[in-house]
Amino acid sequence: MEQRTPVAEVEPDEQVRVAGWVHEIRDLGGIAFVILRDRTGRLQVTVSEDELPTETVEMVAEMTRESVIAVIGTARPEDRAPGGIELIPDTIELVAKADPGLPLDPSGKVDAELPTRLDNRTLDLRKPDVQAIFSIRSTVLQAVRDAFRAADCTEITTPKIVATGTEGGTELFPISYFGREAFMNQSPQLFKQLIAGSNVERVFEIGPIFRAEEHNTPRHLNEATSIDFEGAFCEASDAMDMAESVVTAAYERVSEECQAELEVLGLTDGFELPSGGFERITYEEALDRLNASGALDESLVWGDDLSTEAERALGELMGAHYFITEWPAEVKPFYIKNFDDDPTTSTGFDLMHPAMELSSGGQREHRYERLVEGFEQQGLDPDAFAYYTEMFRYGMPPHAGFGLGGERLVMTMLDLDNIREAVLFPRDRQRLSP
Ligand code: ATP
Ligand code: MG
Predict the structure, then answer these.
(1) pLDDT tens-digit map of 202-224
(2) Nearest C-alpha to atom 22 of ligand 1 is from which residue?
(3) How many other CB atoms are found less than 10 A from the CB of residue 426?
């Protein structure tokens, strides 16, 4: 492509070629102001009718908002223009004309509902606040990767098409695989354990998980991005340390590198870094605090999972990120290790943001016989998982890890109302395209 100067880098008295979208046109008769927008900012192009060929003037008169144009011209200072600079064009090229019937207004002056925005993501993403979310999401993922690498982890990618689900369960999407039934994987859990048990020891993956959740909620997707860790010779507290450190790294990096985006989102004041040392309370303590607070209509008893309301009430009591540890064995999956001296209690933990669950993890059951027993207790057929359990017969070290929802991390960090705001093309009960 021809040389192109980003509009933020245009300096007075320079001849430049800029290209981007027509953000706005103000035609004052005799003179027209075209605001050109690219990913770096906006630039006023001042079009004087008597200084340009008739064809160019006519073309500008017919120009539609969001058309793509390329302009060669010389910049000069102009106090009244955005950024204090205007471009005096020598030539204007209409690269791609936009249909005037825009399905949504990228200037943001007219609000659109979320479904309309998601149907027209290309236009929606032209809005600075929407772009800011995805720019921050990109920084979050980079920070998370760097934190794992700094902790000696190897990045892996595991199959998304599988013969059996992680937890059996009803949350699987079946697909046809050369005439055989297969599934979209709901978690890299079993694979990451198999690799942690090799010489690789410490692994992480950032990849899609698929969940056939029946309900449409503001915090569930049918395809989400899971940030997974698994480490050999780790116990639950090591996995919690790791989860805490990647979440903290994400907040720190966003605070360091994304001030402009936070400002666009109106979050510069409210953006607080998590203070070191997330509080760790046991499940039992969580129940006690909740029951003592009187926030719930009905008291919780040992064995209950925490409802959305309970999570929210507890979050309000805690006021910051925290862990709930030592869950009842019965509410955690078969691969979570239970305490030897109290098999009704598990090493499973959840990492919570005050608004919702961010991550689940724990130490894993690495002893073959106990693992197979656990399968049977949860009504699963160990033979269907032989590819997994067999490897536990050949020297499987103790290990621990977690799965952390990438979108939930971004959603809670930016206080978004709906998890779909943090996904370019969300998949939910109704939405399969784009
Ligand atoms: P929840 O109880 O909130 O539905 P979960 O306990 O079923 O979540 P896990 O299986 O523990 O979820 O998955 C680990 C993490 O992955 C969750 O803490 C969450 O951050 C994320 N996650 C799981 N399912 C979804 C989903 N459907 N949409 C978005 N994120 C998800
Ligand atoms: Mg969970």
Answers:
(1) 999 999 999 998 889 999 999 99
(2) 405
(3) 19
Residue 2 CA to ligand 2 centre (angstroms): 51
Nearest residue (by CA) to ligand 1, atom 18, is 359
Ligand 1 atom 11, closest CA? 360
Range of the domain at 18: 7-96
Q: Is 106 exposed, middle or buried (0-12, 13-18, 19+ CB in 10 A)?
A: buried
Cα-based distances in Å from 418 to 138, 224, 246, 319, 430: 18, 13, 23, 20, 15
Assess whether 374 and 233 both reside in one domain.
yes
Give a yes or no: residue 206 inside a domain: yes
- Pocket perturbation via mutation, ligand 1, pick of 357, 409, 429 by most ligand atoms within 8 A of CB: 357
Give the pLDDT confidence of 255-288 residue by residue, as tens digits.
999 999 999 999 988 788 998 799 999 999 999 9
The amino acid present at 215, given as its one-letter code, is H
pLDDT surpasses 70 at 169:
no
